[in-house]
Design goal:
Elements (H helix, E strand, L loop, with lengths): L4 E7 L16 E2 L2 E2 H10 L4 E8 L4 H10 L5 E6 L4 H9 L6 E6 L7 H14 L2 E6 L6 E2 L5 E3 L7 E10 H14 L6 H7 L5 E4 L10 H13 L6
Bound molecules: cytidine-5'-triphosphate and ligand LQXTBERG.
The site of ligand LQXTBERG has 8 residues, from strand 10.
Length: 232
Amino acid sequence: MSNSVGVVIVAAGRGTRMGTAESKQFLLLQDKPIVVHTLEIFQQHELISEIVLVTGEEDIDRCKEWIADYKLDKVIAVIAGGTERQHSVYKGLLQLGTQWVMVHDGVRPFVQPEQIETCFRRAEQVGSSVLAVPVKDTIKQVDGAGRVVSTPDRRSLWAIQTPQTFRLSELKVAYELAEREGYVGTDDASLAERAGISVSVVEGSYSNIKITTPEDLDFAEYTRRSRGDGQS
Ligand SMILES: Nc1ccn([C@@H]2O[C@H](COP(=O)(O)OP(=O)(O)OP(=O)(O)O)[C@@H](O)[C@H]2O)c(=O)n1
Ligand SMILES: C[C@](O)(CO)[C@H](O)COP(=O)(O)O
């Protein structure tokens, strides 16, 4: 238990922005489902002791088959998710018995082992951390009529990724607070922030994309091939 690290991989989304008949987390990247690529990265990481996979109820059986086929023996549970990402994460948290938790999107198959390590080490020092990259574009806040409201200073803007690392007990409290207050956030850190937890960013890489829209698949194929690890 001491400093043990569990991972919740969320893969229960519908992938509406991708628009494919098959959910994007199960699309093949070099003959292997995207979510399996993601699981393998954590399976092979020495810091990680337990993995929970959260997926669609109807996808549990095939996920269990892949877990057996690809020998992903750190996966302790495959469970059904909820309506929003947040609900899926919370269900996953309830399965873990570790001191720390990293929450990661099943559709981010390019996170690097060193980034997982750095993210965890920072959390160990300061309590919680998220991978992120400085934004490259100028960001504008725009109102419902399409008018620019403001241009925030780019130097303070980061695009937030996963994994996001927390003490498991603290993240559960943050999730329970959000549930009581009816707050739905798009990442785990936003719930932690509301619960008064200070979150640090750790600079990751622009290649740790979340596969979201069709053009991301081209980038994913290219990245997978150029890393020369297509055979694994
Ligand atoms: N109810 C949900 C919604 C999302 N996710 C997961 O959260 C991650 C990030 O979400 P996103 O990219 O938004 O995935 P989808 O919700 O599937 O996509 P979309 O919003 O386009 O429908 C994905 O791995 C997705 O499977 C989940 O486990 N449960
Ligand atoms: C958690 C996340 O991947 C951080 O960038 C992102 O917020 C998920 O958002 P989505 O709306 O579910 O894509």
